[in-house]
Amino acid sequence: MSSVLLVAEHDGESLNPATGRALSCAASLGEVDVVVFSSGADAVGTEAAGLEGCTRVRHVTRPENAHPLAATLAPQVVELAADYDYVLAPSTTFGKDLLPRVAALLCVPQVSDIMEVVDPRTFKRPIYAGDVIHTVRVPDGVKVVATVRIASFPAAGSASGPAPVETVSSSAELPSHTRWVGLAASGGDRPDLQSARRVVSGGRGVGSEDNFRVIYSLADRLDAAVGASRAAVDAGFVPNDMQVGQTGKIIAPDLYVAVGISGAIQHLTGIKDAGCIVAINKDGEAPIFEVADIGLVGDLFQILPELESALEGLDA
Amino acid sequence: MKILVGVKRVIDYNVRVQINREGTGVVKEGVKMSVNPFDEIAIEEALRIRERGDASEVVAVGIGPSAAQQQLRTALAMGADRALLVETEDELQPLAAARILQKIIERELPELVILGKQAIDDDCNQTGQMLAALWGRPQATFASDLKIADGVATVTREVDSGLETIEVDLPAVVTADLRLNEPRFVKMPDIMKAKRKPLDTLPLTELGVEMPAALEAGVCEPPPKRAGGVKVESVEALIAALKEKGVLA
Ligand SMILES: Cc1cc2nc3c(=O)[nH]c(=O)nc-3n(C[C@H](O)[C@H](O)[C@H](O)COP(=O)(O)OP(=O)(O)OC[C@H]3O[C@@H](n4cnc5c(N)ncnc54)[C@H](O)[C@@H]3O)c2cc1C
């Protein structure tokens, strides 16, 4: 059986849900060891050990691992990689930053954004903003290094019993040329955009930061996360971490409500895997209606308050 | 300080790509080609650093067919001082591109390399990270702000949880995200001036780069189509449709 090393993403306190989705892909390839790099986050290892498909957790604790920096993590991944046929990470900004550095140190090509496993060496991945699906194969004898497009895989369930957690020491020499300074997380109490079951997104049509209130309000009514188009982020209506699309987040909620978003291909590629897409736009010709399961043409400033009060009586 | 920027020739982002009849790739004949949008941002950032007086030279480097000179001319028209095309008809993958850039770095000795965070054709998002690894230098990917002082770059990065700031010692590789800047428009006189700027070409075979293992390319196919939906006339009808789909209780 093949062996897979999956790099866990976490914030020092809990496991990022992206890891659980990447694990579903990893488990279809072989026995999966999940490696947690931290400066002492035991809870993260325990959490990973409880996921179905995780054979073993390997915990690498070093003071340099207090923050995830690709330059310091890559040599540690490489140190472990020799024992594995596969090295995987979720295709989040964390995995996208880290894994190519690992691949280059290992002198192997990387497969970005696996969306489907065709056979143990052959994968489908999106190119051209998802307009084309390309099948690529990793040549025989070459270690498979790949990121997993998390919207394409379900979250791993919980295991019947926890996998063993083992501490691994690392003696890799780490560079000091890269230093972590800080993180301005926009966070908030709303559900996490990448793992939320429901998402309400606003686009340029919303008009201003102030107007975005109507989006937040509807989202709260639906217990949904809030997303945005690039145009809305560029215009300063909302922070960057809300961007959905080719160069933002790729998401797969059960319900996606696009409000005042035209439906550019770079945006659509981020929502292709959504269960049900609802579009609210005053332009009946907007391309978003070509992919929407349910479309409603009209002024968002009229429709949203109406929708919200109609939802009032419902157990949404 | 010398800054090296990467310039990739790609199908313009406004073009709806067509898969070729054989299913081996996309149609490029007669299709508008442009500078990869993220590379345009990289060029702009390099120019701004030079204009602030923090750099003395901006060198644009491309890897591609002879026609990619066109995109390097755009970089020159924007304001790059000179350009270099590593000429090859082969479509190279990021690891090969990183090896080539590493070779160019050995010749040019830049203190800063700025690349786009991804190319909008293969959407790989790998080259900058791979180059930094091969070069043994820091990487600051997905940059939305870049400050340079005393041999250190302070970079704000767009990450999934917000904005992260890191500090990297130069030389380093920075990859540009969308909001790093808004690239300038090129004016006619700049295009004329760019024609007189040096643009060297170098066949890849003369560079002496050993080509690494590459992924084998299989078929290209269209993505699964979402089944068309319905338009409803009112909020009530919308809610009814959502209930019917089981999205609302
Ligand atoms: C390299 C590159 C990468 C990109 N990456 C991304 C990405 O990751 N994500 C992304 O989203 N975009 C991305 N884009 C940008 C993308 O091409 C579009 O420009 C962007 O998605 C448009 O955002 P929008 O739909 O909000 O704005 P617009 O296209 O301007 O659409 C606004 C819509 O609002 C509607 N509207 C206006 N007022 C109202 C009203 N009162 N009521 C109802 N409807 C109203 C209009 O009819 C219109 O359809 C990228 C572009 C490039 C070049």
Considering the chains and any ligands shown, give keywords for the structure.
heterodimer; A: 316 residues; alpha/beta; Rossmann fold; 2 domains; 7-stranded parallel β-sheet; 5-stranded parallel β-sheet; 16 strands; B: 249 residues; 9-stranded mixed β-sheet; two-stranded antiparallel sheet; 6 helices; 27% helix; globular; binds flavin-adenine dinucleotide
Which stretches of chain B of 5+ consecutive residues score pLDDT under 50?
none
Strand content of chain A: 25-35%
Query: Given this structure, which CATH class of the largest domain in chain A is correct?
Result: Alpha Beta
Tally of alpha and pi helices of chain A: 9
Mean of all residue-level pLDDT scores of chain A? 96
User: What's the tally of helices of chain B?
Assistant: 6
Average pLDDT number of chain B: 96
Number of domains of chain A: 2
CATH architecture of the largest domain in chain A: 3-Layer(aba) Sandwich
CATH class category name of chain B: Alpha Beta
Q: Determine Rg of chain B (CA atoms, Å).
A: 21 Å
What proportion of the residues of chain B form beta strands (DSSP E)?
Answer: 25-35%
Describe what you observe in this structure.
The complex is a heterodimer of chains A (316) and B (249). Chain A is an alpha/beta fold and 316 residues long. Chain A has two domains: 3-168, HUPs (Rossmann fold, 3-Layer(aba) Sandwich), CATH 3.40.50.620; 198-315, TPP-binding domain (Rossmann fold, 3-Layer(aba) Sandwich). In chain A, 25% of the residues lie in helices and 28% in strands. A seven-stranded parallel beta sheet of chain A has the order 5-9-4-1-2-3-10, with helices on both faces. Chain A has a five-stranded parallel beta sheet with strand order 13-12-14-15-16. A three-stranded antiparallel beta sheet of chain A has the order 6-7-8, with no helix packed on it. Chain B is of the alpha/beta class. Chain B has one domain: Rossmann fold (3-Layer(aba) Sandwich), CATH 3.40.50. Chain B is built from six helices and 13 strands. In chain B, α2 (69-78) packs across α5 and α3 (94-108) packs across α4 (127-135). The longest helix of chain B has 15 residues, at 37-51. Chain B starts with a strand and ends in a 5-residue tail after the last helix. The model of chain B has no long low-confidence stretch (mean pLDDT 96). The complex binds flavin-adenine dinucleotide. Flavin-adenine dinucleotide sits between chains A (203-205, 229-232, 243-248, 260-262, 264, 266-267, 281-283, 286, 299-301) and B (13, 37, 120).
